[in-house]
Design a protein that fits this description.
Strand order of the largest sheet of chain B: 1-2
Distance between the termini of chain B: 72 Å
Distance between the termini of chain A: 48 Å
Structural class of chain A: mainly alpha
Oligomer: heterodimer
Number of strands of chain B: 2
Radius of gyration of chain A: 22 Å
Helix content of chain B: over 70%
Largest sheet of chain A: none
Number of helices of chain A: 12
Number of strands of chain A: 0
Chain lengths: ~260, ~270
């Protein structure tokens, strides 16, 4: 597929919109599961984009910025991964193969801005604080958003200039490697699930993970169904559990469960 | 400070404004002090109300709110409300120790974030993404839209409710919460929900396409004959073990990719 200038501008705008998530309640619309819809609209292939985005989302479900830790920028990786996969017609293998390298590269660029540009902003804010100028401090917070404009332009430009190069690179990769990556992409979600489970698993809650698994494996319930059963069981469990703060606290801290 | 002035009271409108200004709270992440500018930004109107007529106090307040800061954005308004209550006390008394404001902020950020992360990232987003993905995989554009709704309705409700909760509980918040054990039970309940969905996705969304045959029997059929999807569970278990051992996530991911490529090369995956 020939990439037009308009499409490249569109992808740049999708990126800009995604980056603005920090400004809008951190609504999580920068994740592949949502940006894929926008990329699909820009490139005129929504159904394929949805499948690609859902695959990337499952792959990187556990990848998120919690606290200070910065993961690879899968937001940029997701947008460009889906866009390149559609433009080059390489499907899921293409999207998966491209997402991680792009995400790692984008993280480097982002870190540059976080360190220098936003370092400047926060020192200006210190200066305004030192003269008691509250509006100046607030202004620096807003100014820090400017970094996303060059980022979005880079994304649009990369899409415009990169498709042909990306096609050549993907074509030159041996079959078994592409196949292997495709196989790996079915297994990588386990990593995301493991990272998520680590947040909540305690000796007391571990059985519920197996319960969810059993619902799906033996009863053929889908995930929405599991969520509904889970909600009911959670409400009942909380209702019938004795409010015993000392024991509950000890339980939460003790996550030496054996797997 | 200014004991002659009339008492400065926080109004409902002030708390509403905290909610609105918390929306872009984490827009200025930086390496040095993380979300400090967003934290100060959210408090600017209330600080103006308290210290607008006193440049010296304003300088001190702005400086203490530009300290290192980072709390799960979705529940940040709880801490905002709490800190507003403390600032209110400070603005209306002569001898309030402002160090307690900084230490409350620093002390609660971590523990509140642990709860906020597990509820919002560990549970709500998992459910939102699993519903969204299952629809999107069928090419249904409702997937991404439902994903956004399932995540953001709780997001906005939590932000909205927690401002006044934080404010009202004020300085006494910690003791009262610990007495009732409400936080622990909430954590317990949401953990159950989150883990059940994760368990479900282990069954549905992992695929380990083992192609190993012994005497015309495919090994995967034998394994799945014992327990359906057992291979998924075993694979998850070993990855979980690595994560638990704090093995770097990037290495685990590269390991899985290498496993996939090697398996594909010798033809068992």
């Amino acid at each position: 597929m020939e990439v037009t200038v308009m499409q490249a501008v569109g992808i740049g705008l999708v990126a800009l919109f995604a980056y603005m998530v920090d400004f809008c309640a951190y609504a999580q619309w920068d994740r592949p599961i949502f940006t894929c819809l926008l990329v699909g609209l820009v490139l005129g292939d929504v159904p394929q984009a949805l499948v690609l985005g859902a695959n990337l989302e499952l792959l990187y479900m556990g990848t998120m910025s919690i606290g200070a830790a910065l993961p690879p920028d899968i937001y940029t990786g997701g947008i460009l991964g889906v866009a390149f996969a559609i433009a080059t017609g390489t499907g899921i293998e293409g999207a998966v193969t491209l997402c991680l390298p792009i995400a790692s590269l984008a993280l480097v660029v982002k870190q540059f801005f976080y360190t220098f540009f936003r370092g400047y902003c926060t020192h200006r804010a210190d200066y305004y604080a030192s003269i008691g100028n509250a509006d100046g401090v607030a202004k620096m917070h807003i100014l820090s958003l400017l970094m996303w404009v060059p980022m979005a332009i880079l994304v649009g430009f990369a899409f415009y200039a990169g498709s042909a190069a990306v096609q050549t690179i993907l074509d030159s990769i041996p079959e078994f490697i592409m196949n292997g990556i495709s196989v790996a992409s079915g297994m990588i979600p386990a990593l995301g699930f493991a990272m998520l489970a680590k947040l909540t698993v305690t000796q007391k809650t571990l059985p519920f993970l197996f319960l969810g698994f059993a619902f799906v494996s033996y009863l053929g319930v889908d995930v929405t169904g599991v969520a509904i059963f889970g909600l009911i069981i959670a409400v009942l469990a909380v209702y019938f559990s004795k409010p015993n703060p000392a024991a509950a606290t000890a339980e939460v801290e003790d996550d030496d469960n054996e797997f | 400070m200014s004991s002659s002035a009339v008492e400065k009271k926080v109004t409902k409108a002030d708390l509403k404004q905290i909610f609105w200004r918390s929306i872009p709270y984490n827009a200025s992440f930086n390496y040095e002090r993380q979300l400090n500018m967003g934290w100060a930004y959210t408090l600017v109107p209330i600080l103006k109300k308290f210290y607008g007529d006193d440049n010296e106090e304003m300088t001190k307040a702005l400086t203490r709110h530009l300290e290192y800061n980072n709390i799960t954005p979705f529940i940040s308004t709880f801490l905002f409300g709490l800190i507003v209550a403390m600032e209110e006390k400070n603005a209306n008394s002569e001898d309030f120790d402002t160090k307690s404001i900084s230490s409350t902020k620093a002390g609660l950020m971590g523990s509140l974030s642990a709860i906020g992360d597990s509820i919002f990232f560990g549970t709500i987003r998992v459910i939102a993404a699993s519903v969204g993905c299952s629809l999107a995989l069928q090419g249904n554009p409702l997937g991404p839209i439902l994903y956004l709704l399932i995540f953001n309705v709780p997001n906005l409700i939590a932000r909205w409710i927690l401002v006044s909760k934080g404010y009202n509980l004020g300085v006494e918040f910690l003791t009262s919460v610990e007495k009732s054990g409400a936080m622990d039970r909430l954590f317990f309940g949401t953990s159950i929900l989150g883990l059940m969905v994760i368990g479900g996705m282990i069954g549905l969304n992992i695929s380990v396409p083992l192609q190993l045959t012994f005497f015309d029997t495919n090994l995967i059929d034998v394994i799945n004959g014992i327990v359906p999807n057992l291979l998924n569970l075993l694979f998850f278990g070993s990855i979980y073990w690595l994560v638990k051992k704090n093995v770097n996530v990037v290495w685990i991911m590269l390991g899985i990719i290498v496993l996939g490529i090697l398996g594909s090369l010798i033809g068992i995956l």
